[in-house]
């Protein structure tokens, strides 16, 4: 009987021990189990406490506070006193809510059951930060639209000859948005928000002032006639040739060249076409004369060439004719042919120049105007014909002509070699002499046909 009591007492003690162990374990298990579908305590997403919330509940809480208000917020840009805005909704700004709520829910899930229990009973603060993404393409379009509105070309001052003086219209400034900098400023401002859009983003754009290349101040330096040159075309021109000269002169008249700018005769006058009014007229072709559209305008380029030389500006591209020109001394001519031969020069003066062209009364004239300080020097073009080349005579037997008869196919003319110099004078004394050309005009041989027909 005594032994039986001892067994009963032992069993009772065992039950008590087991109960003492299993009841706390059950409590731990039950507590942890209750958080199977909700977020552990102490977890915040940004500043939203999502402890004890399901993933869906957490998503709604965060979305209501942050994502829902994104559409009301804007990126504001101020440029030149004007305001431009684009909403974050147009940038498709989106928070990583799915990612952060998943992170919040998974917090502590990898721990043992007892560590999970500890985390629940004594929560540790867990802060999870939001971040967002946005589409930069609408932002590029936004900045480009601001650029289109802000950018404005500077307007050059203009100058026109009026009687003995000049009239100048003032220049106006232009403006240029620094669009690359603005894009960087906007993205930097958005990135600096740190994950939450709680207010508008404000950015100040940089707008640069663009000065006109030709300001009124610069053009006012054009105040004095510094050189002139003229040739006579009336006695040597057909009506068509005269028209061609007048059209080309008109295209050049009033042209302004700033220091360092270049002039191209073909570039300014353009192609000589019938649509522009150019007519067929005699033109030098090799060693003979034929008809060509725009014939005669070499007299325009030649006259301008000499006027510019006498302003102290040398040519950068110039060729002489193959045969001498009747309207200027040897070596003074400058031939042009659209697409082939051009007359060019660069304004090497410290001041702008104004070119005035006139073709009235059969006289072709170019006047060059610039700053009055340039009149302290004058220039003169001189030539030195240092060799005369005699023509030869060549014969062609022609069976269509009676024997003993001849016919001249080509008249002879002498050739010449000539050096041309630009002389510079100051106070009446020559201070320099530069050779600017060493031209050869080849002789034109006489060609005679001799009859051989019997």
TrEMBL record:
Keywords: Membrane, Signal, Transmembrane, Transmembrane helix. The keyword Phosphoprotein does not apply. SMART domains: G5 (SM01208). Residues 375-454 form the G5 domain. It holds the Pfam family PG_binding_4. It comes from the Bacteria. The chain crosses the membrane at residues 7-29. InterPro entries: G5_dom, Glycopeptide_resist_protein, Vancomycin_resist_VanW, YoaR-like_PG-bd. This is Putative vancomycin resistance protein. It comes from Clostridium pasteurianum BC1. The lineage of its organism: Bacteria, Bacillati, Bacillota, Clostridia, Eubacteriales.
């Amino acid at each position: 009987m005594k032994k039986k009591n001892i067994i009963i007492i032992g069993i009772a003690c065992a039950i008590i021990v087991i109960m003492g162990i299993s009841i706390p374990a059950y409590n731990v298990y039950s507590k942890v189990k209750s958080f199977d579908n909700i977020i552990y305590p102490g977890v915040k997403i940004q500043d939203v406490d999502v402890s004890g919330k399901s993933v869906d509940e957490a998503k709604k809480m965060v979305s209501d506070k942050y994502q829902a208000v994104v559409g009301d917020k804007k990126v504001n840009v101020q440029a030149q006193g004007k305001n431009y805005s684009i909403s974050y909704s147009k940038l498709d700004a989106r928070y990583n809510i799915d990612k952060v709520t998943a992170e919040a829910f998974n917090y502590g899930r990898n721990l043992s059951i007892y560590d999970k229990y500890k985390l629940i009973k004594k929560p540790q603060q867990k802060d999870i930060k939001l971040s967002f993404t946005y589409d930069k393409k609408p932002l590029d379009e936004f900045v480009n639209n601001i650029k289109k509105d802000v950018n404005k070309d500077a307007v050059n001052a203009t100058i026109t000859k009026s009687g003995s003086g000049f009239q100048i219209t003032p220049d106006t400034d232009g403006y240029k948005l620094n669009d690359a900098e603005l894009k960087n400023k906007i993205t930097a401002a958005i990135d600096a928000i740190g994950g939450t859009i709680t207010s508008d983003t404000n950015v100040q754009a940089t707008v640069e002032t663009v000065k006109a290349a030709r300001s009124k101040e610069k053009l006012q330096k054009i105040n004095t006639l510094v050189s002139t040159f003229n040739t006579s075309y009336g006695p040597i021109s057909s009506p068509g040739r005269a028209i061609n000269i007048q059209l080309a002169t008109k295209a050049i008249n009033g042209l302004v060249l700033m220091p360092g700018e270049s002039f191209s005769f073909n570039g300014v006058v353009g192609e000589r076409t019938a649509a522009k009014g150019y007519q067929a007229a005699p033109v030098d072709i090799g060693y003979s004369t034929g008809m060509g559209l725009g014939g005669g305008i070499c007299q325009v380029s030649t006259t301008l060439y000499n006027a510019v030389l006498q302003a102290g500006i040398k040519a950068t591209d110039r060729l002489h004719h193959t045969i001498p020109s009747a309207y200027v001394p040897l070596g003074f001519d400058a031939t042009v042919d659209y697409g082939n031969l051009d007359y060019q020069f660069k304004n090497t003066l410290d001041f702008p120049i104004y070119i005035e062209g006139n073709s009235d009364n059969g006289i072709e004239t170019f006047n060059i105007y610039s700053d009055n300080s340039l009149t302290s020097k004058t220039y003169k073009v001189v030539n030195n014909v240092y060799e005369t080349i005699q023509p030869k005579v060549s014969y062609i037997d022609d069976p269509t002509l009676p024997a003993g008869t001849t016919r001249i196919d080509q008249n002879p003319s002498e050739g010449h070699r000539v050096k041309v110099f630009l002389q510079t004078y100051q106070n009446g004394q020559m201070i320099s002499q530069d050779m600017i050309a060493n031209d050869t005009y080849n002789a034109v041989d006489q060609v005679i046909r001799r009859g051989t027909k019997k």
